[in-house]
Amino acid sequence: MNRSGRMWKLALIAGLALVAAACSDSGGDSTSSASASAPAASGSEATAAPAELTVELDWVPNPDHVGLYYAEDKGYFVDANLTVSFHPPSNAADPIKLVGLDKVDLAISYEPEMFYGQQNGLPVVAVATVVPVPLNSLIVSPDATVTQLSDLSGKSVGVTGIPSDDAFYLTALKTAGLSEGDVTKVNVGFNLVPSLLSNKVDAVIGGYRNVEAIQVEQETGTPPTVFPANELGVPTYAELVVVANTDRLASDAAYADAVTRFVATLVKGTDAAIADPTGATAVMKSATQYEPKFLEESVPYTLTLLTPAAGTKTGCIDAAAWQSYGDWMKANDLITSTPDAAAIASDQYMPYSCS
């Protein structure tokens, strides 16, 4: 699979602009702090109450969703008295927009999209991380000798044309001490892997280290050199997050309780999958359409990326890191508004303290 879904970012920005007025008319206060917006669950009776949740995915089921599908397969959502249905999005703007418009209960989306949503007035908040680290990477062809970013001098780099990927590219050059004249930039659209395999370019930005990098390795027999976004000089960020409706969290105790149980179940499913990579791979073979050979490598590797770093816990949100990434987005003209991470990300719904 080529994760051409990064293309969706452009359409999503346009879609958010179209719905901002509708969200304002709904009475949502997009400037209120997320951490102050939601009541806690109201005791064991509320916790045990049956609830149905419709969850709009960011993409078709894939290894990034292993914690969700492991939890579903093992009956963890049923144990939490939740009936959860996952739906791939029908178009680019759907996930975060539909949560903001109260058309679906939750979405799986991207940390950067939360800042676009904030700029456009959507009443949405991230309540947990799904993938806590960047997946988007600079992937270097096995035929190119690049062991550090400065080795890109004289090389060619393929980009998708998405503004955020261009910002990653320019940040990488700055980190490497290179000028734009030192490297040839080639717009390859979403033909990332074919462009590498055909030697059209020496490297690409926009592929995922747990997807395109593995595809390149399996096609060539040699692992490519990979620099995740946070090694390019970009502040670290969460690739995927769980998104809820801020207004509903504040006004609907049953919804807030169901969201709390969903997050706890995601954490349980993720931790259990990390401890059972063979079983998790089997689950994803049933849940996705990907080739078994790809999943046998991608799922265990993805689980290593989901494993909490020392001193952190599964699902937790690093507010300071979010603010740094939002500031980077503004500094690179990806957003024009002043980012406020505290208003769009909250660890209030986690099953434990994240501090």
Q: What this model shows, in words?
A:
The protein has helices spanning about 10-25, 45-50, 65-75, 75-80, 95-100, 110-120, 165-175, 190-195, 210-220, 245-250, 255-275, 275-285, 290-305, 320-330; strands spanning about 50-55, 80-85, 105-110, 125-130, 135-140, 155-160, 185, 205-210, 225-230, 240-245. It contains 14 helices and ten strands.
List keywords for this structure.
355 residues, alpha/beta, five-stranded mixed beta sheet, 14 helices, disordered N terminus
Spell out the blueprint of helices and strands.
Elements: H1 8-25, H2 43-48, E1 51-56, H3 66-73, H4 76-79, E2 82-87, H5 94-100, E3 106-109, H6 111-119, E4 124-131, E5 136-140, E6 156-159, H7 163-176, E7 184-187, H8 192-197, E8 203-208, H9 212-220, E9 225-228, E10 240-245, H10 246-251, H11 253-275, H12 277-287, H13 292-306, H14 319-331
Parallel strand pairs: 1-2, 1-3, 6-7, 6-8
Antiparallel strand pairs: 3-10, 4-10, 5-8, 5-9
Helix pairs in contact: 3-11, 3-12, 12-13
Approximate shape: globular
| H-E string | HHEHHEHEHEEEHEHEHEEHHHHH
Give unreliable regions as ranges: 1-46
Report strand %. Answer: 5-15%
Oligomeric state of the chains? single chain
Q: Could you give a short account of the major beta sheet?
A: 5 strands, mixed
Query: What's the rounded overall pLDDT mean?
Result: 89
